[in-house]
Amino acid sequence: MTTPSAAASATLLGEFVRNHRERITPQSVGLPPGFRRRAKGLRREELAALCGISPTWLTWIEQGRALSLSAGTLAALAKSLSLNPAERAYLFDLAAVRDPASGDVTPGEAAAAALRASLAEAVARFRSPAYVLDAEWNAVAWNKPAAALFERWLGKQATERNLLNYMFLDPDARTFIADWPERARRLVAEFRADRRAGLQEKATRTQVATLRRASPDFDRFWSGQDVLAREGGERVFLHPVQGRVAFRQLTLQVANSPEHKVVLLT
After folding, report:
1. Dihedral-angle region of residue 141 (phi above 0 means left; psi in -120 to 50 means alpha; beta otherwise)
2. Average pLDDT estimate for 108-135
3. Which of 49, 73, 171, 206 sits at a 20 to 30 Å CA gap from 135?
């Protein structure tokens, strides 16, 4: 039985293929322009021949009736339509088929890796400490000033780069972060607000359960049910070498990946 989501994806895929077929000129694929050509771009028969499939099958694809496409057919469509890497990944994602050209990395994994690389490049340009948190508040990118400031959390010797784990499971945090009890309480309330739509996801439930068992303070704060928006303001740290240092914190949400947050300390 076809699910509504599969049918919707097939419709989107069909519209995508038809739109791109109409963009391709016959000359660009080595075909003569012909006379009295009424169709925009390639005819279905022409694209079907280029892909090695029947015109009927291509018609069903464009009508959203082809609910099971092979990787070979998708690859042929991508090549014949001159799709760029992002368009090819989109085509395979709509069909829920792994692109064999991506090796062992799925399009989603490749996109995530590219996003992390671009975020790392972005924060590296800041002169003051800057880091990026993912949905579970793992640090996925940071610059050298951040690593120097947060030696136990982001430095070379760090083995755990989850912000909540550092805050509640590393004794260093209690002496490093000024006014630790209040900052820790707020951090838990901010995490609850930030993950409000994903609190029932397995990764988050496991994370919260582990922290509640390991830290009585986290368990107490979590049981308090406080919910606070992640705000800026002054952040004070008692660094073992730099001494007392104060920053103004600003948190930015990544537009094309809202589960990621860029934290700037200026």
Report:
1. beta
2. 83
3. 171
> What confidence tier does 3 reach under pLDDT thresholds 50, 70, 90?
low
What is the rounded CA–CA span in Å between residue 9 and residue 7? 5
**Residue 47 corresponds to which amino acid?**
L
Question: Residue 260 in contact with residue 133, Cβ under 8 Å?
Answer: yes
Task: Record the tokens describing residue 66, joined without a space.
Answer: 């082809």
Q: Do domains 4-104 and 117-265 have the same CATH topology?
A: no
* Distance from C-alpha of 33 to C-alpha of 222, rounded to nearest angstrom: 68
Q: Which fold has domain 117-265?
A: Beta-Lactamase (3.30.450)
Question: Could you give the CA distance from residue 3 to residue 254 in angstroms, rounded to a whole number?
Answer: 32
Task: Kindly report, residue by residue over 86-98, the tens digit of the pLDDT.
Answer: 788 888 888 888 8
Distances (CA, A) of 79 to 51, 75, 86, 115: 8, 6, 13, 25
C-alpha gyration radius of the chain: 26
Q: Domain spanning 4-104: which superfamily?
A: lambda repressor-like DNA-binding domains (1.10.260.40)
65 pLDDT band, cuts 50/70/90, is: confident
Sheet holding 233-239, edge to edge: 139-142, 130-133, 261-265, 243-253, 233-239
DSSP reduced 3-state for 42:
coil
Show me where the domains of the chain are located: 4-104, 117-265
Burial class, 51, CB count within 10 angstroms (exposed 0-12 / middle 13-18 / buried 19+):
buried
